[in-house]
Design goal:
- Helix 1 crosses helix 4 and helix 3 runs antiparallel to helix 4.
- The protein has a two-stranded antiparallel sheet.
- It is mainly α and 160 residues long.
- The chain has 6 helices and 2 strands.
């Protein structure tokens, strides 16, 4: 009889401890989840790059986007996250969806820097790397060469 009382007492003690600890564990999980959700939302709506422009830690990487990867902003985000160019592939994919770039990412080789925002990266990945005009191949713009856009158009129209 005493053995049953001891087993019942032990069982009640274990159940009591679990009942006391379970809410604390649930609260800690909710706090961790809320912190992660806040960080993802902040990264989504605030234009922020992984590294500050001109930061010593900022780095550039050659990123190759295949035809298969270009079909999914989440895959592209994973590539960029693995190269430490963005902080979250999920925020990147949602940003691509919200800005309309999710279906316009083109395959190719791109140089991406960690001081670029997600929107700047999406703009770059949506521009065809082979479509850069000859006079802008070295990063020059018509303003850099001393010509305005109107002068460029006039040369094309009048053949001068």
């Amino acid at each position: 009889m005493d053995n049953n009382i001891e087993k019942t007492g032990l069982f009640e003690t274990v159940v009591g401890i679990i009942m006391d600890v379970a809410p604390i564990i649930c609260v800690l999980i909710i706090i961790a989840w809320a912190g992660r959700a806040y960080a993802e939302g902040y990264g989504l709506f605030v234009q922020k790059s992984l590294d500050s422009p001109g930061d010593v830690q900022a780095h550039s990487e050659m990123v190759t986007i295949s035809e298969e990867d270009a079909s999914s902003a989440l895959r592209v985000g994973k590539i960029l996250e693995d190269m430490d160019l963005i902080s979250s592939r999920y925020s990147f994919a949602v940003k691509a969806r919200l800005t309309g770039y999710s279906h316009s990412i083109l395959p190719g080789d791109y140089i991406i820097s960690s001081d670029m925002t997600a929107e700047q990266i999406l703009e770059k990945l949506s521009a065809d790397p082979a479509a850069v005009p000859e006079n802008q191949a070295d990063g020059e713009t018509p303003a850099d060469t001393g010509q305005s856009d109107t002068q460029e158009e006039n040369k094309d129209v009048w053949g001068q």
